[in-house]
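Researcher: Hi, I'm a grad student and pretty new to this. My advisor asked me to get structures for two proteins we've been looking at. I'm not sure of the right format, so I'll just paste the first sequence and hope you can take it from there.
Model: That works fine. Here's the first sequence with its structure tokens right after it:
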Amino acid sequence: KKTENLHHRRQRQRTDCTEMSVELNPLSTAKGKRFECEMCGKAAMLACQHCRVTYYCGHEHQSVDWFGIHEKICQLLGALRTLAPTLGSEEERQRRNLTIQMSQHALIDLCRNEAQKHMVAGNYELAVPGALQSLRFSVKVYGNARIELVPAYLLVAEANLGLKRHKVAEEFLLYANWSALKNPDCGNELKSQLHRNFGRLYAAQGRYDEALRQLAHDVYFSSLESGPEHIDTAGGYYYLADVFLLKQSIEHALALYDKVVDIWYKFLIKLRNRPSEHITDYLSEASIGEAAEMLRKILETRQKYLGDNHIATGESSFALGTLRHLNGEFEQAAELYEHALEVYRKELGENHESAIAIQAALEELDADQPKQNKSTAKQQDKAEAQTL
């Protein structure tokens, strides 16, 4: 059924994009001029009818690009790619160059954020266009073999890793590694991310010992950058645990999952005790989604190997529930809190401080829901007023 729904969605998207494209006429193309597909570099047959400066080999690639990133940057691309080659004065040229640089920097961030959102949602195919655009604009802004290209290389590699295109992912990881080696000033954060992606690649290829070695380096550099108890480092522990799970070393995997949950639990509880602050002050939407996915998988693993009523399973429910609560997902948070409370009361007793803490979280959740409803209503009223 899922495959059937995906097929229908792609058919609908392809139909939508058919109405947004124009066919290229080879006879009207200047001699020696070759239009290339935005996605694969092959000879283009179509152009976006809106910007008229983005080309595709067929409707399939136009559809992926449109829903992945192009619909958000179409107008900007049109403006950037059709700039007049010369202007009247030096002052005008400087002003134009500054505008171009600012637009390109903004597009790097926009494309990266969109790609990350798609990856968190598991839509790796739609993440590829944004990742590629982020890389293209990074090359234009910074030049080749620069350290600033590493995040974009990693993004493209991660999207292809999600699609199980291991050779392509490894190719971009090697580009990233080469850029890092060429720049001795490469920071610990980038080194951490580079080793993490190599670790994930090797794990997907079944090269578990190499994966563990890379992920150990990830934890090391992340600890140097942020500390061993930081939420950024927790990602390294998580992927290490995943590899141990693949090796059927359950005890090692569960121990590392304990570390991940403990780090996130402490961070989230501190944040919940600061009502004037919001989770988005510290984490991007993509980071919140990634954290939720990690905690969800840990909860499922603990349920499988420890049981639904184990205290560690209740702890996972509490941590994930707190994240959902802080992110305004009240219904999911309530279910997770209630499960955690049931486990804690059964295993520790109603008067245990942990059970009391969860009961307080549920009461706080009940109080927060009317606040969100009022805030949502105000936003809707504001939007309607602007429309009028």
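Researcher: Oh nice, that was easy. Here's the second one.
Model: And its structure:
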Amino acid sequence: EPARQIMFKLHLGSTRHTLTDQDLRDLAKRTDGYSGADLGVVVRDAIYEPVRKVQQATHFRRVRGPSHSDPSVELDDLWTPCSPGMPGAVEMDWMKVDPEKLLEPPVCRDDMERALIHTKPTVNQDS
């Protein structure tokens, strides 16, 4: 279990996420029987969820966040997907957002949960 928790962290690398240590412990418990490669598939699928959110968004709002070119610099003019009813929501699709001004949502627990639904262990449970 601790090894799977470490593997989740390794596969996430420097990807922006909101997963807590408790989230990672819970995910490690739920992935008994998953190989390291299986966990890599889960994390890659979860990492793609924010991209899907961007591509499916009909509204974006201005937010503050790190610059793509220098993450130590905070910018006030980035765009992130949001629901139509959110204050500051502007109707547009992702193709109208300057790529340098796009702030993808961080990977969250729900993204990992969705990925787990689609990824089953490949390791034989009977061995």
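Researcher: Is there anything I should tell my advisor about the second?
Model: You could mention this: Residues 46 and 111 are 5 Å apart (CA to CA).
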